[in-house]
Design a protein that fits this description.
Layout: H1 7-16, E1 25-30, E2 39-51, E3 54-67, E4 74-78, E5 91-97, H2 98-101, H3 105-117, H4 128-144, E6 156-158, H5 161-174, E7 184-188, E8 195-198, H6 206-229
Antiparallel strand pairs: 1-3, 1-5, 2-3, 2-6, 3-4, 5-7, 7-8
């Protein structure tokens, strides 16, 4: 069973206090350029998992969607947070801060590194396996927590061996301290999956633009540590 998140307390408060202003809704839809799929082209695959004690085969990868906050439709990349929901679009969402949604700061920091620093062609967007691995990490954090990360134990388990290897490699980068964490938010809605985002969602095409810059930044940090150790 998914861990209870503090978002439900916030929602309960809004129901109990009808005088409070309602949060603005944000329409989210499939990206028409996807060609009939909600996934970024080539960045999803079927994986074998266990969830709530039942073995399942699911599609995992990076969603390519669009949102509209009043200035027209904007492309963005995202991951789903709930295995217990189907993605049903179009649907109005509300932006919820990570602090109100996730159980711990460790969860937010780990997701902030993944979503803020590793969404490049060197890491998440390297191939379908790495994209599925990143989604698996999101599910593991949501279900079991970053502080007890273990893809072989807990409420969420990953069995697909090549994706498991990529997920463990990405997790090693997340906890290495070599990458910055960005502040994460959630596009939350009923009767559809909640979606990972931030104050500035990762836009379409940006991973291709910044993949080289991310690699240079990582190399410079490694060189700095080597110089300090000498």
């Amino acid at each position: 069973m998914s861990r209870i998140k503090t978002i439900f307390a916030a929602l309960a408060l809004s129901i109990a206090a009808p005088g409070l202003a309602e949060a603005a809704t944000i329409p989210i839809r499939d990206n028409p350029d996807n060609g009939g799929s909600v996934f970024a082209t080539g960045f999803n695959r079927s994986i074998s998992i266990q969830y709530e004690g039942a073995n399942r085969n699911v599609q995992a990868g990076v969603f390519s969607l669009q949102y509209d906050e009043g200035d027209g439709w904007v492309d963005f990349y995202t991951f789903c947070l709930q295995l217990s929901e189907y993605l049903s679009l179009p649907r109005d969402h509300e932006r919820v801060s990570g602090g109100d949604y996730f159980a711990s700061g460790d969860d937010m920091n780990a997701l902030g590194v993944l979503y803020g620093s590793l969404m490049t062609t060197d890491y998440v967007f390297k191939n379908a396996n790495t994209a599925a691995a990143a989604q698996s990490i999101v599910w593991e954090i949501t279900e079991d927590g970053a502080d007890s990360f273990d893809l072989a134990a807990g409420d969420f388990k990953l069995f697909t061996t090549d994706v498991l290897a990529e997920a463990n490699a990405l997790w090693a980068l997340i906890i290495s301290g070599d990458f910055l964490s960005t502040s994460v938010d959630v596009f939350a809605a009923v009767r559809t999956q909640d979606l990972l985002t931030s104050s500035v969602p990762v836009p379409g095409a940006l991973p291709l633009l910044f993949s080289g810059l991310a690699g240079l930044g990582f190399a410079s940090r490694r060189q700095k540590r080597a110089t300090e150790a000498a």
